[in-house]
Amino acid sequence: MEAMNFKILRESPTPELEKLWRDYLTRVEFPSHYDAPEYFLEPPLPGKRRFAVLAFENDRITGTLTGLHSDKNVICGLPARPQINVDATADAATTLDALAQGLLKEASSSELVSVYSWAYLKLPPFAGLGFQCEELQGNVVLDLTIGPDALFKEFSKDRRRNIRFAEKNGVEITEVTTDQDIADAYEVYSAWRETERKTVHTRKMSFEFYDKVARMKENRLRLIARAGGKAIAVNTFRFLPGGLFESSTNSSLDEFIHLKPNDLLQWRGIEWACAHGLRRHSLGGSHQFLIRFGGTVIPIFRYRLDRTFLRRHDLTDTVNKVGRKIVAKLPPSVENRIRKLAGKKQR
Question: Phi, psi (5° rounding) for residue 201?
């Protein structure tokens, strides 16, 4: 067996290392933007530090894992966005062991370490090091190689009807390119955060941060929907050329939802991805709106290492699961009342 080791990066790679990294991406089945050197070009996040672990077999990269330090936590991906991949031609077990060892070194002082992975990439070396595995709902994933016409036929009947309805009623979709487009998109985003129909738990992006991301054309597609010239909805997609196309964020104005702009935004994104040779589209979730686009729901697994006293995070999860099972057995009226109270507490 050839020597396997790892390297930890906390900033953009050198030109020589970047070349090796990009060569590695040609051997990954569905590489994503966060698997690539561009990960370090993302705008900085307050109080968070990026890193990447690269697994090597001699002078060849065979795996990548990217993540963030956030207080005492290390987070590698999200429930809807894995950030780990391996060379399809390499020995997966050996590569994953190197990534796990590199992650433990990087997260040596962290209380909680979380890694998210697609179902087709199991992480036995992580489980062997004490990471607890939990299967999550996963994402709807479309095969873009069959082309837009075939994909459209796989949409549910109401999805196709909604797209035609939006087109018939004058909803126009364009790419966000100008300063005015960015300002309009940010206005929609800001209004969407204040809607009463939901609680948004993420921190609001500043205009400066939003503007920087909107100008990252080589790995982002941001589409804006307008009706009568007014911006009413925005969709952002991430991508890596030749690899994975991912739904990132969506914002829309409640008073224009009846025009079905979000259906048309997603469809225009799919058409664009097909035209640009992208191979798979992860829609970023698997709720009913997304399932109606067809495709396959691919589960995502969370591997988590809880180093706190008495493993309080794992304990809290267990208590919450038991609580949800109890609530689910209650009469609907009581269940709804409890959920409303819980929602108010989260605010």
Answer: -95, -15
